[in-house]
Amino acid sequence: MKIVVLDGYGMNPGDLRWDALGALGELTVYDRTRPEEVASRIAGAPIVYTNKVVLGRKTIEAAQDLRFIGVLATGVNVVDVEAARERGIPVCNVPAYSTDSVAQMTIALLLELCLHVGEHSRLVRAGEWTTSPDFCFWRYPLVELAGKTMGIVGLGSIGRAVAKIASALGMRVIAYRGHGEGVEMLPLKEVLAQADVLSLHCPLTKENARMIDEAALARMKPGAFLLNTARGGLLDEAAVAAALKSGRLAGAAVDVASSEPIAADNPLLTAPNCILTPHIAWATSAARVRLMDIAVENLRAFLAGKPINAVNL
């Protein structure tokens, strides 16, 4: 049985092993696959894994041997799941593998906005503490989180994990959509109005694309922080950049962009008080080991006639 991984490098740049997946068939792992290479690479393969390589309707319909699509991620927007369903092909994703890692990154970004640890370290190494007339200095306002309000959009597994950490820091937590014990659920307009920190943890859909736009930003507290470790398309990036430049937002930290890799003209690249990281919240070693393990279990379950984590069956 032929197994093809179209873009394995993103999740496994060499520090993990494909042995468990290879034990289930004749495995070929490509680091990356260009759109024009997809059809030839999956020809004759009943089992195909993708992370970010698009498998559209035409590709799925043309792949006559295709029987199983594994997504090496939680989001399945790169696959035409309806086209796969019509052919009886399960599309199996990997849910909840990165919950703790993404929550950890979310709080790391927030703490960097509050304390500017990296920048102060840079200034010390540049000699500014050595030459300071005082025993200490700080270049930015230092923010204490206790007593402030964390607003979460999307109280799923990651949102709940963030809520738990925020509560441990002494923050009041409110949220829009989802459910969580001890968290006050409010309409979005109230979350926007009350949050000192707004953190996004919802999937990207047609309905919520660019949900944080000029109007949403106008409803937020002046001086609030914005965090996005979910999907770049949730932000109107030009509006966020404008809010940072005007000072309405005190700071933003995002691990995702509307197009990835980030475009050279993305307005957030030149916005003040904006931390940008290259979509790494999910990518701790522990999370990627879990991803690999679940991806293998998905195939084992399919081969046993009992598919799991199938989003289209």
Automatic annotation (TrEMBL):
**Keyword Nucleotide-binding in record:** no
Keyword set includes Metal-binding: no
State the family it belongs to. Answer: Belongs to the D-isomer specific 2-hydroxyacid dehydrogenase family.
Which superkingdom does the taxonomy of this entry point to?
Bacteria
Q: Which InterPro entries match?
A: D-iso_2-hydroxyacid_DH_PdxB, D-isomer_2_OHA_DH_cat_dom, D-isomer_DH_CS, D-isomer_DH_NAD-bd, NAD(P)-bd_dom_sf
Extract the Pfam families matched here: 2-Hacid_dh, 2-Hacid_dh_C
Q: Which GO terms describe its molecular function?
A: NAD binding; oxidoreductase activity, acting on the CH-OH group of donors, NAD or NADP as acceptor
Keywords for this protein = NAD, Oxidoreductase
Ranges for domain D-isomer specific 2-hydroxyacid dehydrogenase NAD-binding come to 107-281
Which named protein is this?
A: D-2-hydroxyacid dehydrogenase
Signal peptide range in chain numbering: none
Residues annotated as domain D-isomer specific 2-hydroxyacid dehydrogenase catalytic: 22-312
